[in-house]
Design goal:
about 400 residues; mainly alpha; globular
């Protein structure tokens, strides 16, 4: 298997997949969760396949596993794994801190109106609107640095949508551990398949990281099973089944659906990377590119938009809250959430620079370290070249 000539566009495709998944989560929270209880038409069987937030989260995890491991599979540089593990905490910490600060400021000035909107919409059971966490400065600091990564009670969960962060941290660290041990015992992909089977039983969310790694590891191999799955009729049937499943799963939500969600998410990512027209749309479309760039900011900031934009609009128009008015409020919320995510993007870019600096500093690399150690002009290590050629996106 050739390791050194992976297509850099693969990362752009993963960006696009994650961007559309982030948009689905936003639409799910606004229309299905926020407005759907009062306006049943927004929970129609026709809308359901495109509003499956739970499936979109599984897609996040599959894409994270693929994006985090793709540079390693291309270079087999174990130092990349060490650097990535060191960078992971600051990479996530910086944008989460900014999102927490945003909610803290909005709460301090009385601009978060979730509980009032929850009463109007009949959604007191949904944390997206009725969160009552204490948004004190001390709790915000604790949540940002520790609590968001370890899991919290509702009273301390300032950003309830970030229940995924403990999974993201544990999944990525376990993946890095696997990559560090890969091929040490000469087992190749068989070890990864065994890990996928075991983690699928224990935690399908964690399993998604390893599935993503397997997908990118096998991209350049023309294995018989892969060719069979890419038969046009089998691919069309599989995508149709994914669409039908997505609709049924969001209508009949259940904890046990985490298991088939992981399988369907893997299928969606696999076909998006391997079907030509899908791959081209994801890598070349301007909309996909935009969504990919703002996917993590959109995921982080849309809770603040729900509290400070969506909820006040619901409260202001409660007397005229018909279905058309609710739909307009929802669409306005989506547009504003995208604009806020665009404004939030420089924070994520800063997190890339900060985490890279920390990784270089801990490993004694970078310009200053190179000059001190050799007295020569610094040169890029193989893994650094990969990072500049394949920029890791949204949460990676």
């Amino acid at each position: 298997m050739s390791r050194g000539h992976r297509n850099p566009a693969r990362i752009r495709e993963l960006d696009g997949i994650r961007g559309w998944a982030a948009l689905v989560v936003l639409l799910f929270h606004v229309f299905w969760e926020g407005l759907g209880e009062r306006f049943g038409a927004l929970r129609s069987v026709f809308a359901a396949p495109f509003l499956n937030g739970d499936l979109a989260v599984c897609i996040f995890f599959v894409v994270s596993g693929a994006a985090l491991s793709a540079p390693f599979h291309a270079s087999m540089d174990r130092k990349f794994v060490v650097r990535s593990a060191i960078k992971r905490y600051p990479r996530l910490l910086v944008p989460i801190a900014a999102a927490t600060l945003l909610v803290w400021l909005l709460s301090r000035f009385g601009l978060m109106h979730g509980p009032e909107a929850a009463d109007i919409l009949g959604r007191r059971d949904w944390l997206g609107l009725n969160n009552v966490a204490t948004v004190s400065s001390a709790n915000a600091l604790y949540f940002t640095t520790s609590g968001v990564f370890s899991g919290l009670s509702a009273q301390r969960n300032i950003l309830p949508f970030l229940w995924t962060m403990p999974i993201e941290m544990v999944g990525s660290m376990l993946l890095f551990l696997y990559l560090a041990c890969k091929d040490v015992y000469g087992q190749g992909s068989r070890l990864l398949v065994a890990i996928i089977v075991m983690t699928f039983v224990a935690s399908p969310y964690i399993c998604c990281f390893f599935i993503g790694s397997l997908i990118v590891d096998r991209q350049s191999q023309g294995a018989g099973l892969r060719q069979l799955l890419l038969n046009r009729w089998i691919a069309a049937a599989a995508l149709l089944l994914c669409l039908l499943y997505s609709g049924l799963a969001v209508v009949f939500r259940n904890e046990l659906l985490r298991y088939p969600n992981a399988v369907v998410a893997a299928a969606i990512v696999f076909y998006c990377l391997n079907i030509g027209w899908l791959s081209r749309c994801l890598s070349a479309s301007r909309l996909s590119s935009l969504l990919g760039k703002i996917s993590f900011p959109l995921y982080l900031s849309h809770y603040a938009v729900l509290g400070a934009v969506f909820s006040p609009l619901v409260v202001a128009y409660q007397a005229q809250l018909t279905l058309p008015v609710a739909a307009l409020i929802g669409l306005a919320t989506v547009v504003i959430a995208i604009l806020v995510a665009i404004a939030f993007s420089p924070v994520e870019q800063a997190s890339h620079r900060i985490s890279k600096w920390i990784g270089d500093y801990v490993l004694g690399e970078g310009d200053g370290a190179s000059r001190r150690s050799s007295g020569a002009q610094p040169s890029l290590a193989p893994s650094a070249k990969i990072e500049t050629r394949l920029p890791l996106q949204a949460a990676d």
